[in-house]
Design brief:
By secondary structure, the chain is of the alpha+beta class. It has eight helices and 13 strands.
């Protein structure tokens, strides 16, 4: 087991482990740590605890110190500088007539580097822009092109559910989401109904997928021939979460539709599920 603290650098960012050393650090404290980007100011979201060695990425860097009031003031000053740098960069992009959209700006805590995040349709030659920015800010400049999901995470907004975007409010990392999930959950494969603000598949498709997979493993498909307490029939519809099946019973010349619990029917012959009559290749473009 290894002693760690979990530190986050953005409100809904990824949690990184650091070695607390001799510090006994409480949750919500601010700390100064060294990262691959340089010295950073972060918030502790996981206080001192021990985790399995396989859960960490070695070597584990140590916490430099618990943040002082002076450190907090310096971090606040950096936030103000970021707003000024954002406006400066926007003007420089306009001057160079570059086809790119500036999303966010970050100062490292030690001011050794400024990171500018942007989106663009293709590759952008920003070498002259970097030179201009370096001349203005007199420090290292890094421009990073990000995807549309990262853009939504940084900017935030409201989803179709009316709540704040999950990626911006609590999701530390993006999880893979696929068209298969939407199909298995019985959702409409209309792109406008299963894609989020970013234009990619909604992250929330992942939340209940495990439960749907567990149910799908033990229920018959629509079209399967089954034996019910009232005779043989064909499944016409399934309510996955309620685990109910609508069965068409054959009784001589009479056809009867009845609802049964999945536990009360026995599959005689299942069917192979057919592909839906939609443009799957077009839908695949929604996957990230």
């Amino acid at each position: 087991m290894v002693k760690v603290v979990g530190v986050r650098f953005k409100s809904a960012g990824k949690i990184y482990y650091f070695d607390p050393g001799d510090f006994n650090i409480e949750q919500n404290w601010n700390v100064i740590v060294e990262t691959a980007r340089g010295v950073e100011f972060g918030q502790v979201v996981i206080s001192n605890r021990e985790v399995p060695e396989e859960d960490i990425v070695a070597p584990l860097k140590k916490v430099i110190r618990v943040a002082t009031e002076e450190d907090k003031k310096h971090a606040d000053d950096n936030r103000r500088k970021e707003e000024e740098a954002f406006n400066t960069c926007l003007q420089k992009i306009k001057n160079h007539n570059l086809d790119m959209k500036l999303i966010d700006v970050e100062y490292t805590f030690d001011n050794n580097k400024i990171l500018f995040y942007f989106t663009a349709e293709g590759r952008v030659d920003f070498r002259e822009l970097v030179k201009d920015l370096a001349a203005v800010f007199k420090t290292r400049i890094e421009l990073r092109q990000i995807g549309v999901r990262d853009e939504a995470k940084m900017l935030g907004g409201l989803g179709v559910c009316g709540r704040a975007l999950c990626c911006n409010s609590f999701l530390g990392e993006f999880q893979p989401v696929s068209i298969k999930m939407a199909k298995e959950q019985g959702l409409s494969l209309n792109p406008t109904k299963i894609s989020g603000t970013c234009g990619r598949l909604m992250c929330c498709l992942k939340y209940e997928q495990e439960a749907y997979e567990e149910i799908l493993d033990r229920i018959p498909k629509v079209g399967a021939i089954v034996e019910t307490p009232e005779g043989q029939g064909v499944i016409m519809g399934i309510s996955l979460l309620k685990e109910l099946a609508k069965v068409k019973l054959d009784k001589g010349n009479e056809t009867d539709l009845k609802i049964y619990s999945i536990a009360d029917i026995k599959v005689i012959k299942d069917v192979v599920e057919e592909e839906p009559d939609v443009d799957i290749e077009a839908l695949k473009q929604l996957e990230d």
